[in-house]
Design a protein that fits this description.
This protein is an alpha+beta fold and 606 residues long. The chain folds into 3 domains: 189 residues, Heat Shock Protein 90; 126 residues, Ribosomal Protein S5, domain 2 (2-Layer Sandwich), CATH 3.30.230.10; 271 residues, MutL, C-terminal domain, dimerisation subdomain (formyl-coa transferase, domain 3, 2-Layer Sandwich). It contains 19 helices and 26 strands.
């Protein structure tokens, strides 16, 4: 078959398959053009998910007739004034969007530049009509009708109208978040539109825009980030580990104002939350990365969704450190949704209020231990110490007042997590705060404290080891033994020294000092199960963190352990002093808080 030159219309249709694969892609290109035109307000209208109509109207600079004629030709753009691809300062620059859309749909552009007259042009499946005068305020209106009517095969691959509308709405939400100084209006069928006013420049305006798009409760459950290193700047909001979603749709990542779904940034985000997020859940973030345009290549993907960084490792390091530092700055705070979830569960069970005429009492009565209740005559087991000194009660390490003290004004002063009042079911601690009550999961909380101290010890040098007088011999399958011995370096750095001991066994020679009295055999078997699941891509630090989590779990105070009042208070004080203590090592909350108003509603007092 001889080689021949393709028809220009066919070339545009092929290009459209790369740039405009669905209505959301067309919406993205048109809204980006409006932003680059300096618009202060952008209105978007969708019908049938964008298949029937996409209309984007802006009040930007507009175009004179000569520019309008060029705009619908391939590789014609106003966004590369110096022709340099290494310093992209705009969202669009390829010059392919309008001709690609015009090749597969009916495209009409009406525009007016400042001080000029309005003009319009129509492109019908690649056929260009002459420019004609048209009434128009300053700005541009682009209407795309019957998308893909010229390429019917593409219509078969589109999803339903609702799915396509939601995909387009997500694109607009991302662009609206990146440019909070612009007002956005979205309307159409199969979606819940919005009308976002322009926000003032600065962090306060950005937070208002994010709250409007993601939800009012997000800002109250997120850490503000501000990190800078080697010319890179990271700002935005990152949710507490206990505030998460079932999907990653509410993860908004921006590079120099450009929404991206970059694998490097997503990987850094996962690494930053690896210590504290529940498996299968995703944090909510709005992160803005700024750097010299010469340090990022945005020309590696037709839809410009992926980028390539010159200093990828520096970007990854900044992301991880910035997020972790921001979360550490939140201290012990846990998501405010814990108490709300508890109230919702009570309501779901028909418990709208309690009292003489309220809902039925629980089938099994709660067993409380109050401060003034006499404990059994048998010795109370000591709570494992979170530090590395000799085993002792937490109360010996943290001085806690035996009763609530009054401040200088005579009012009762409570620390953030209050003072312990009781322990029930020998599992949970009930504490009184200034605003209500806090319920603490004693095992989850102490597990987190131990883990953070083990990590701190590793960062300062090495986890203190305790040689065993008689090595602990653990029988394991050969594959498990091989997996453990392959990770001997990571285990030794975490304080665990193991050696082979004949066929089918290993010998534990040294353990982390806090684990001297733990069940070594059970711990090693749990560790063997986890090591077998490690992937080859995990770093040494990540593997050591896995080991320390297992140690912390075996060292922590268990549910069913009766605690003294001073031990409970000491645990609360250490939680307040430990960043990240609002969630356990598995991402579950370590405590929930109920306000007095919540309690009054349960008892029908409000």
């Amino acid at each position: 078959m001889p080689v021949r030159q393709l028809d220009p219309v066919l070339i545009d249709q092929i290009a459209a398959g790369e740039v405009i694969e669905r209505p959301a892609a067309a919406v993205k290109e048109l809204v980006e053009n409006a932003i680059d035109a300096g618009a202060h307000r952008i209105e978007i209208r969708l019908e049938q998910g964008g298949r029937r109509l996409i209309r984007v109207t802006d009040d930007g600079a507009g175009m004179p007739p000569d520019d309008l004629a060029l705009a619908i030709r391939r590789h014609a753009t106003s966004k590369l004034p110096e022709g340099q691809l290494d310093r992209i300062l705009t969202l669009g620059f390829r010059g392919e969007a309008l001709p690609s859309i015009g090749a597969v749909a009916r495209l009409q552009i009406t525009t007016r530049a400042a001080g000029g007259e309005g003009h319009a042009i129509l492109v019908d499946a690649g056929q260009v009509s002459p420019i004609r005068p048209a009434a128009m305020a300053q700005g541009t209106r682009v209407e795309v009708s019957d998308l893909f009517f010229a390429t019917p095969a593409r219509l078969k691959f589109l999803k339903g109208d609702r799915a396509e509308a939601q995909a387009a709405a997500l694109v607009i939400r991302r662009l609206a978040m990146a440019h909070s100084e612009i007002a956005f209006t979205l309307s159409g069928d199969h979606l819940s539109g919005f009308d976002l006013p322009a926000e003032a420049p600065g962090e306060a305006g950005l937070r208002r825009r994010i709250a409007r798009l993601v939800g009012e409760d997000f800002a109250g459950n997120a850490a503000s980030l501000r990190a800078e290193r080697n010319g890179f700047r990271l700002t935005g909001l990152a949710s507490l580990p206990t505030y998460h979603r079932a999907s990653a749709l509410d993860q908004y990542l921006f590079v120099n104002g450009r929404p991206v779904r970059d694998r490097l940034l997503i990987g850094a985000l996962k690494a930053a939350y690896a210590d504290s997020l529940m498996a299968g859940r995703h944090p909510v973030v709005a992160l803005f990365l700024e750097l010299d345009p010469a340090g990022v290549d945005v020309n590696v993907h037709p839809a410009k969704l992926e980028v390539r960084f010159r200093d990828a490792e520096g970007i990854r390091s900044l992301m991880i450190a910035g997020i972790r530092d921001g979360l550490a700055g939140m201290g012990h705070q846990a998501s405010s949704r814990g108490g709300e979830a508890m109230l919702q569960r009570l309501r779901a069970q028909g418990i709208t209020h309690l009292g003489a005429g309220g809902a039925p009492m629980p089938a099994r009565p709660l067993s409380f231990v109050f401060p003034d209740q006499r404990l059994p005559e048998r010795p109370v087991p000591a709570m494992p110490h979170a530090g590395f000194s000799e085993p002792a009660r937490l109360s010996e390490r943290v001085q806690v007042p035996q009763s609530v003290q009054a401040d200088a004004g005579g009012e009762t002063a409570f620390p953030p997590l209050g003072y312990a009042r009781a322990q029930f079911h020998e599992t949970f601690i009930l504490a009184q705060t200034g605003e209500g009550v806090v319920i603490v999961d004693q095992h989850a909380a102490h597990e987190r404290l131990v883990y953070e101290r083990l990590k701190q010890a590793r960062a300062e040098g090495a986890v203190p080891r305790q040689p065993l007088l008689i090595p602990a011999i653990v029988d394991l399958p050969e594959p498990a033994i091989a997996a453990l011995l392959d990770q001997a370096e990571a285990l030794a750095a975490a304080g665990l020294v193991i050696e082979p001991f004949g066929a089918g066994a290993i010998a534990v020679q040294e353990v982390p000092a806090p684990l001297a009295g733990a069940d070594i055999v059970a711990m090693i078997r749990d560790l063997a199960d986890q090591v077998g699941e490690w992937g080859g891509s995990e770093s040494l630090s990540a593997r050591q963190d896995h080991v320390l989590k297992t140690f912390a779990c075996h060292h922590s105070v268990r549910a069913g352990r009766r605690l003294r009042l001073e031990e409970m208070d000491a645990l609360l004080r250490e939680m307040e002093a430990t960043p990240g203590s609002g969630q356990c090592n598995h991402g579950r909350p370590t405590y929930i808080a109920l306000s007095l108003k919540d309690l009054e509603r349960l008892f029908g007092r409000s």
